[in-house]
Write a structure and sequence with these properties.
Strand content: 25-35%
Shape: extended
Radius of gyration: 33 Å
Strand order of the largest sheet: 1-2-3-6-7-10-13-14
Number of helices: 6
Order of helices and strands: HHHEEEEEEEEEEHHEEEEH
Largest sheet: 8 strands, antiparallel, barrel
């Protein structure tokens, strides 16, 4: 009787395990079929909602569209690495921003090819309408810019963005110790909204006025220190001059980027209530250790004139033209 009851128990246990395995297998098959169905149909959006496209990206693209066809006449001022007095100017360069797709051989750009491509409009082609030129020991020499591309980069919440251009330089152009090296070449111009620039210009004016006040106190107290014959008075004036100088340095240290805010004469309108700085940075990058790149400052680039804009006649030129 004991053996029969034991065998019955073993059979019941085995049967329960078989049912458990069967139910598990059936559940897994149904789950697999459901997952397969979800990925084949649009129902997947109900369980796995897609991330909405960033509105900042679309705004940037809209802003960039207003710049299509813009022509810029530029001058590049390069500075020597060993000798800061050695300079080389490249004049006559005219570029046109296009809506065409950038060349596959374009240099890697900081925005679209960087760590946060969402802050870039994407790459478009730059057309070289007229090559720049410079004077070297060999005479007048044109500068070839290849595989040009451009992008607008603007981080959400930042006071300003940038228009960046990138090119490949096929050969080094040298004048004394100043040179335009072979390889990638980049330059950028700051871009502001009109209201944003006005706001920061007012802030800069407040800071400049505060610094000027402390500078005036410093100059006055130091002059009184020099004119006084009383040792105690000299010590008091000297202390006040030092305090004013310290406050002036403190204001400058707390606002280190205010020097980059352009004045009205240093910007030009580029449409869609935007303005662009006339002066920008010029740089390249070289390979460094551990696969990193090292940025090398080359000089500055400035907008000489927009070729599509005629210069307004001034009162002086009008008077000269009226002379007999």
């Amino acid at each position: 009787w004991t053996n029969n009851s034991g065998s019955e128990a073993l059979k019941a246990d085995a049967s329960a395990k078989r049912r458990e395995v069967s139910e598990t297998t059936t559940y897994m098959m149904k789950l697999s079929a459901l997952i397969y169905l979800l990925f084949l149909t649009d129902v997947s959006g109900l369980l796995f909602p897609q991330r909405k496209p960033a509105t900042q990206k679309s705004k940037l693209v809209q802003i960039a569209q207003t710049q299509i066809g813009t022509e810029l006449k530029l001058r590049l001022d390069l500075v020597g690495k060993e000798d800061a007095d050695a300079k080389m100017g490249i004049s006559g360069l005219i570029l046109r921003l296009t809506d065409r797709e950038a060349s596959k051989a374009h240099p890697k750009m900081p925005g679209a090819d960087g760590a946060i491509p969402q802050i870039s409009t994407g790459l478009r082609s730059v057309e070289v309408v007229q090559e720049g030129y410079t004077v070297t020991r060999e005479g007048l020499k044109n500068t070839r810019l290849m595989n040009g591309c451009w992008e607008m980069v603007w981080k959400e919440g930042a006071p300003a963005g940038s228009i960046l251009c990138g090119f490949e330089i096929p050969e080094t152009i040298r004048r004394n110790s100043a040179s335009l090296p072979q390889g990638p070449l980049y330059f950028n111009f700051p871009v502001w909204s009109r209201s944003g620039l006005t706001f920061w210009q007012e802030k800069k004016l407040e800071v400049d006025q505060e610094r000027a006040k402390f500078k005036h106190v410093q100059t006055r107290e130091f002059q009184m220190y020099r004119n006084s014959q009383n040792l105690l008075e000299k010590a008091v004036h000297y202390k006040k001059a030092l305090d004013a100088a310290e406050k002036c340095m403190y204001v400058a240290a707390n606002n280190p980027h205010f020097d980059r805010i352009p004045a009205e004469a240093e910007v030009m309108p580029i449409g869609d209530d935007l303005v662009m700085g006339l002066n920008g940075a010029l740089w390249t990058h070289k390979s460094a250790m551990f696969g990193k790149t090292k940025v090398e400052h080359l000089g500055k680039v400035c907008v000489v004139q927009r070729p599509d804009e005629k210069r307004r006649p001034t009162e002086t030129t009008l008077n000269e033209n009226l002379r007999p």
